[in-house]
Amino acid sequence: MAEHRSMQRAALLDAARSLLSEGGTEALTFPALAERTGLARSSVYEYFRSRAAVVEELCEADFPVWAAEVEAAMERAASAEDKVEAYVRQQLALVGDRRHRAVVAISASELDAGAREKIRAAHGGLVAMIVEALGELGHGQPRLAAMLVQGVVDAAVRRIELGAAEDPVVITDAAVAMALRGVRG
Among 26, 44, 89, 160, which is least packed by CB within 10 angstroms? Predict the structure, then answer.
């Protein structure tokens, strides 16, 4: 019985990822989850009390995987500058990944305070990854610099997600240049 519930929960989360990836937060509804998984709508409520609960669980499951991929890319980098570049490039490389698309859609939605705090904490852990590298590069305020670098990444993600006129490679290269050299270029 426990294994069956676990499999159903996983199927619901997978369906939620797909819905978020395909149609954004508006597409994530309990009727849509029920349809995707073949469950009765009332059964979905047995697993999740609200849409925010689905979102929270997706963040708990997917954000660490995404962060681990960014961290692994940074660990392969030789220098502090290379680590910052890897941080930016890996996040932007993940834009097409279904898990990433779900997290982006989630962050744009109206969530309760608990879900927002979990997302904020997860982003804080991501940003903390480059603080040391930025300190090594001589930034006097590496934590602030890390937050600003993440802002550049977030803006590039939005640009790519919008299907901007620029090629994603051009956007990625510009984001890396901005992160490493600022507006002088």
Answer: 26
36 close to 19: Cβ distance less than 8 angstroms: yes
What value, to the nearest 5°, has the Cα angle with vertex 34 and ends 33 and 38? 120
**How far apart are the C-alpha atoms of 22 and 104, rounded to whole Å?**
12
How does 89-116 read in b/e, with b if 16+ C-beta sit within 10 Å?
bbbbbbbebebbbbbbbbbebebeeebb
Tens digits of residue pLDDT in 103-153: 665 655 556 677 677 777 777 788 888 999 999 999 999 999 999 999 999
Is this model's pTM higher than 0.85 or not? no
Identify whether the C-beta of residue 130 lies closer than 8 Å to the C-beta of residue 83: yes
Alpha helices (H) along 108-182: 113-136, 142-161, 168-181
Contacts of 44 (CB under 8 A, 6+ apart): 12, 30, 33, 34, 37
DSSP per-residue codes, 12-38: HHHHHHHHHHHH-GGG--HHHHHHHHT
Cβ neighbors of 49 (< 8 A, separation 6 or more) are: none
- Residues with Cβ < 8 Å from 162, sequence gap 6 or more? none
